[in-house]
Amino acid sequence: MTTNPISQPGFSEHRSPVRGSVTPHKSGLVPVRSNGNNGTAKLTLKNLSLTYKANGSSRLLALDGIDLKVKPGEFLCIVGPSGCGKSTLLHVIAGLQQPTAGHVLVDDNLMDGPGTDRILIFQELGLFPWLTVSENVEFGMKMKGIARAERQEKVQYYLRLVHLAQFKDSYIHQLSGGMRQRVALARALATEPDVLLMDEPFAALDAQTRDLLHDELERIWAETGRTIVFVTHNVREAVRLGDRVALFTFRPGRIKREYKVDLPRPRHLEDVTVAKSAREILDDLREEINKSLEAEYAGEVLKR
Amino acid sequence: MKKFMRHAIFYSVLIGIWALLAKLKVWPPYVFPSPQGVVESLAAGFADHSFWIAIGVSMKRMLLGYSLSVLLGMVLGLGVASNKFLEETMGGLLVSLQSLPSICWLPLAVLWFGLTEKAILFVVVMGSLLSVTIAMETGRQQMPKIYGMAGRNLGARGFRLFWHVLLPASLPYIISGLKQGWAFAWRSLISGEMIFVSLGLGQLLMMGRDLNDMSQVIAVMILIIAIGYIVDGLVFRTIERRLQQKWGLAPAT
Question: Listing from the earlier edge strand, what are the strands of the sheet with A59-70?
């Protein structure tokens, strides 16, 4: 499963327009192609497309033919310019949004609708303000019908895991941004999902808090062995955290390229190797960002 | 404490002027009773249990009628909020119906149910149903969508999603409507009881008129105001304050 994909020949059907144009092993990055993997994938996205009906007749193609496999226990980061459909993709995997075409397989089973095997941590978190911290963490287990005693035990365990045990009786508005983030993480982990979907979770945090949460997330990932799909617009963050980074194109959202991050862990955001790898992806991303800016600018002009 | 002092001064002055006017006998006592007379009426009413009985009867009708209208209003409001067609058609009808004073339902209720408890309950329900329904509808619409998604994401479905997520999430948006509904129900009940003779505070008020007992009329009016104020101030404001504290919408004071 974890063999270096560069040594596996015969990757086919990749949609990347820059196929074959990269030099491998430069700065710890290895270009990879999805598909052609015969092991069981935790998640398999097959030809996933989603069209939004914008006002009236105009349509917006948010996702266009996404093919992606995520291995069990893998940490996959998805980067792309804002508005590229990254969040939409997570909503589809979580079962909260119906794709227009294609499907999602979880352990080779067709996914239909939300399930506690895939928990999404929303960008705006969606913590319940009418519940205390421990009641928030308990919520998913309660819905699963787990007995009270076991719930309480697990709440304690997961709150300790995210270092929030002493805040169990606080309400959400009493917590700082970083603490809320950790409550969301504990709430997601407590349902013991196989797959954790994270939508730009650390975007709104200050640098120190984010660094701290990177370390914690990496530790928790190592301890719990979850599969993580992590969406971000921050390339460095993606390289710092991910086993693999998938770069999305701007409208329609496609996978432009994938990179395997071969840097040893633990990594740090300021590592030269991380910065070097990020630079390479950033060059590809910049192209897409320019496209998104152009589109935005065109929209502005049209509005006037 | 300063606030309390201001209130104490205001009410002492008010009652002082009232007592003075009564003492000067500007108007005869059966038109303008003295404060002492009203206090005596209150004491007598409670002593012979007639006030207790009236309060009991009226509160029972309120609780029944109000709970019914909250239940119905929930169903109606959520139905209207979840359906585009209903929202356009029924939503407009509900708003226009709100301009009808609820006592106007009494003749209809009497014809439908006769001079029974059901008729008065019907008036109470009709008095508060619309504000509860409209509150539920707007609450459901104003509630951030994220909570519903988060709930589904964590495995909540159907009734459990409604009970554990959608209802608590919309509570801050519907509590003022629920409060308004209670106030409307209270008014409908008293006016209903005044016309429709069968115990209760409204009937006590009319009895004071029939007996030409102005002190009793004022005493019962004070009672009606007091109960309305207590429920509003103690029950609803406490709920509101708790909600605001939990949600962090206001400083915990």
Answer: A59-70, A43-53, A101-106, A109-110
β-bridge mates for residue A68, sequence order? A45
Which residues of A fall within a CB distance of 8 Å from B173?
Answer: none
Cβ of B147 within 8 Å of Cβ of A187? The answer is no
Confidence (pLDDT) at B250: 58
pLDDT tens per residue, range A208-233: 888 888 888 888 888 888 899 999 88
Q: How many CB atoms lie within 10 A of CB B145?
A: 10
Q: Is residue A177 part of a domain?
A: no
Provide the mean pLDDT of chain A.
79
Among A140-144, A254-258, B135-139, B181-185, the range scoring the smallest mean pLDDT is: A254-258
**Alpha-carbon distance A93 to A112, whole Å?**
10
Q: Is the peptide bond before A264 cis (omega within 30 degrees of 0)?
A: no
Is the complex ipTM higher than 0.90? Answer: no
Is pLDDT above 90 for B222?
yes
Task: Please indicate, yes or no, if residue A250 is contained in any of the structural domains.
Answer: yes
What six digits make up the tokens of B232? Answer: 């509003």
Whether A96 and B153 lie within 8 Å, measured CB to CB = yes
Is A259 within 8 Å of A284 (Cβ atoms)? no
E strand or H helix at A199, and its extent?
Answer: strand A195-199
User: Residue A148 falls within a domain, yes or no?
Assistant: no
- Rounded Cα distance between B123 and B105, Å, is 6
Q: Which of B154, B160, B167, B240 to mutate to test the interface with A (most CBs of A within 10 A)?
A: B154
Looking at the 3D structure of chain A, how many domains does it have?
Answer: 1
**Which residues of A are less than 8 Å from B248 in CB distance?**
129, 171-174
Q: Which of A129, A139, A171 is facing B154, going by the closest CB pair?
A: A139
Residue-number span of the structural domain to which A216 is assigned: 29-117+193-303
Residue A268 is part of a domain; what is its CATH number?
Answer: 3.40.50.300
What element of type H or E holds A272?
A: helix A272-303
Looking at residue A276, its pLDDT comes to 82
For residue A11, being part of any structural domain is answered with: no
What homologous superfamily is domain B35-247 in, according to CATH?
MetI-like (1.10.3720.10)
- Write out chain A residues lying below 8 Å of B247, CB-based: 129-130, 171, 173
